[in-house]
Amino acid sequence: MSDGEGKGRLLLGIDLGTSHTAVMSSRGKKFLLKSIVGYPKDVIGLKLLGRPHVVGDEAFEMRTYLDIRYPLQDGVLSELSDRDLDVARHLLTHVVQTAEPEGSDEICAVIGVPARASGANKALLLKMAQEVVHTALVVSEPFMVGYGLDRLVNTIIVDIGAGTTDLCALRGTVPAPEDQVTLTKAGNYVDERLQNAILERHPELQMNTNVACSVKERFSFVGVAPEAASFEFRAAGKPVVCDVTEPVKIACESLMPDIIESIEMLLRSFPPEYQSTVLKNIVVAGGGSRIRGIAGYLKDQLRVFGEAEVTCVSDPTFDGCRGALRLAQELPPQYWRQLGDVAGA
Asked: Which of 15, 92, 163, 257 lies deepest, with the highest CB count within 10 Å?
């Protein structure tokens, strides 16, 4: 089969996330979908749906009559039952089909997972990927981001997703396990903290994590509030406007201590002569990079180590899968075993 991208080989960069999955292909297709699968709750749901399951945003819109399943917990595959594996299989199959491969294509995918995902979980993902692609490579999500940005030396990447916050020290080599940290406090944790903080002040409100997520996505900040944050909720079915400035601050800043501690740990792992350089090369990626004030907040907290420079990526949604696709394009699949866990090569 030809090695030409447009002549029989389709390359995919896949950022497989707890909340959303982002994909870019070597033929220019780019899309984002919710990492969920919906199944009819009963025969009425089956009649309304007209098929055995539905994936992504469409499933979320129909959630009132579907059993919604999240195949990824804390950024890695659930391993609880055969049903969980079927859910993950349906998501992965849908992702590949949406990339519009042609019948004769050799499909090669680079898939991002949390930095410290277990060997067993990677093996499970690769086994499943082999059902829908010819060759798959699993790499850490912050490494994908660094590769796409050409920030591979003396850099620390902080990738704040929904299920995990992943940090990676990049030294010009494929990162070893000790170069990486995975924290389970991330976007979903903020949603839970925010929901609880709002209900403590306003117990009469009708709240769930979907509402809390909407508040977070609209107002998230750390440090000094850029504006007063007011949001329209429901209480006993009626609209109620509440100030949520302090709850948003509390929830978003709950991520910061563990992130700062992990940055400090990775910084100290560099030779002392490089540490001042590393301190000026800290990159925040993922959905959490949209938290207003986060770069300045981290810079201030790291001041004890010297002058820090913290930047946020320009495209949090696709920077990870863009890096994965670039890696697939620049390094042919026969070399992927040098980078990480591979199936099919």
From this structure: 15
Beta strand 54-55 with 72-73 is: unpaired
Q: How confident is the model at residue 5 (pLDDT cuts 50, 70, 90)?
A: very low
pLDDT score at 18: 87
pLDDT at residue 1 in the model:
35
Q: Which of 36, 122, 37 is nearest to 79 (CA)?
A: 122
Helix axes 245-253, 209-219, angle to 10 degrees: 90
**Is residue 297 situated within a structural domain?**
yes
Angstrom distance (rounded) from CA 337 to CA 244:
49
292 shares its domain with 335: no
pLDDT at residue 333 greater than cutoff 60 = yes
pTM: 0.90
Query: 285 and 159 in contact (C-beta within 8 Å)?
Result: yes
Q: Which residues contact 259 (CB under 8 A, 6 or more apart)?
A: 158, 160, 165, 167, 183, 298
57 and 95, same domain (yes or no): yes
Q: What pLDDT is recorded for position 231?
A: 97
